[in-house]
Specification:
By secondary structure, the protein is of the alpha/beta class. The chain is 47% helix and 11% strand. The protein folds into 2 domains: 1-77; 85-205, Glutaredoxin (3-Layer(aba) Sandwich). It has a 6-stranded mixed β-sheet with strand order 1-6-5-3-4-2, sandwiched between helices. Strand 5 (179-183) and strand 6 (186-190) form a beta hairpin. The longest helix is centred in the N-terminal third of the chain and has 76 residues, at 2-77. 26% of the residues are buried. Pfam families: DUF3105. The chain crosses the membrane at residues 44-67. It comes from Streptomyces neyagawaensis.
Length: 224
């Protein structure tokens, strides 16, 4: 009986130690899980930083690419066009009546206060010089042709003008070449619409650096 009581007396202590061991094991497991979670979070932060850095680097690189492309485009647009004749310091006064211009067709000088509508406009009849010059002041290119230009060339130029903003076209008999392209202070004479300089002239002078009033409207004026 004494032996049985002694054994019975030891069980509470053993149960307490067992409970402590279980609690310690649980805490160790919790700490292990916590450390593992912290490690995972650190890895995720590093991964996020790495991905963000790559994306930013790509954006910056892409930005420089776009800037370089834009600069290349500006360089190409500013390239000179062979055969262009230029004038400088032409007057810009608004006047009534006709003006005696230095060149034919005129590419600048005093002009009417109302511009000719000059946005993708194809006219089959002559337009007044004074209104046309005002269109050039707004950055438009005026395509003119006489009876020496072939029907096919006139049709080709008409199609080109109809799809090019800030351009207009009209017949003009008093010119020495079948086709003439006119911008403010600049003029190019060609024989054929297929001449590659036609497109180069448009690329350079439509709303080009020569424009006295860049961004001014090419609509809302007069239609002859």
């Amino acid at each position: 009986m004494a032996t049985s009581k002694a054994k019975a007396g030891k069980n509470p202590k053993g149960n307490k130690e067992s409970a402590k061991n279980r609690e310690a094991a649980r805490r160790a497991r919790v700490e292990e899980i916590r450390k593992a979670e912290q490690a995972r979070e650190r890895r995720m932060r590093l991964l996020t930083i790495g991905v963000t850095t790559v994306i930013l680097a790509g954006l910056v690189g892409g930005g420089w690419f776009l800037i370089d492309a834009a600069q290349d485009k500006e360089v190409a647009k500013a390239a000179p066009v062979d055969g262009v004749k230029s004038w400088s310091k032409l007057t810009q006064n608004h006047v009534n009546g006709t003006v005696d211009y230095k060149m034919s067709p005129p590419v600048g000088g005093d002009h009417n206060q109302v511009w000719v509508n000059c946005d993708k406009q194809v006219y089959t009849k002559a337009v007044p010089n004074e209104n046309a010059v005002h269109g050039l002041e707004h950055g438009a290119v005026w395509v003119t042709y006489n009876d020496k230009a072939s029907k096919a060339d006139v049709e080709s130029l008409s199609d080109l003008v109809k799809k090019t903003s800030y351009t207009f076209m009209s017949p003009y008999e008093d010119q020495s070449s079948p086709i003439v392209l006119n911008a403010w202070e600049h003029q190019l004479k060609v024989d054929k619409a297929s001449d590659p300089r036609v497109q180069k002239f448009l690329d350079k002078y439509v709303q080009g650096e020569q424009t006295p009033e860049p961004g001014a409207a090419c609509s809302g004026g007069m239609t002859p």
